[in-house]
Design brief:
With 104 residues, the protein is an alpha+beta fold. It has one helix spanning 2-19; strands at 31-36, 44-47, 52-54, 61-66, 70-73, 83-85, 90-92, 99-102. This is Plastocyanin.
C-alpha cells in the first residue's frame, strides 16, 4: 500500500509540474504585412511580424498577407482594443500613432 501511495504521489507531482509550466511564446506570423501610406512614399513591408509593430505616421491601408490574424490598434503600444484583420484581407487604418500586433 505504501508503494502504491508513493507512486501515486510522484505521478501527481509530475502532473502538477506540467500543469504549472510557463505558457509557450507565440510564434511570429509567416508572411508579410504591407502598409500603404501615400502615393509619394514606398510601401512599408514587415516580414514575419511578431510582437507590437508601430505603423508609419501617415499609414492609410494595411494588408495582411500572413498566415495569422493581425490586430490594428489605435495607440503605438498595442494596448487599446483593436480591429482584427484576417489573413488575405486588408483594412483602412487611421493616420497617426497606431500599431498592429499578431494574434496568438
Amino acid at each position: 500500500m505504501k508503494k502504491f501511495l508513493a507512486a501515486g504521489g510522484a505521478a501527481i507531482a509530475v502532473a502538477m509540474t506540467f500543469a504549472t509550466a510557463a505558457p509557450a511564446v507565440a510564434a511570429p506570423a509567416t508572411g508579410e504585412v504591407v502598409v500603404f501610406s501615400v502615393e509619394s512614399t514606398e510601401l512599408t513591408v514587415v516580414e514575419n511580424p511578431s510582437g507590437c509593430v508601430k505603423l508609419p505616421t501617415a499609414a492609410h491601408v494595411l494588408v495582411n498577407q500572413t498566415d495569422k490574424p493581425v490586430r490594428v490598434h489605435g495607440d503605438p503600444f498595442c494596448v487599446t482594443p483593436g480591429l482584427t484583420v484576417a489573413p488575405g484581407y486588408g483594412s483602412h487604418v487611421a493616420a497617426g500613432s497606431g500599431s498592429f500586433s499578431v494574434d496568438r
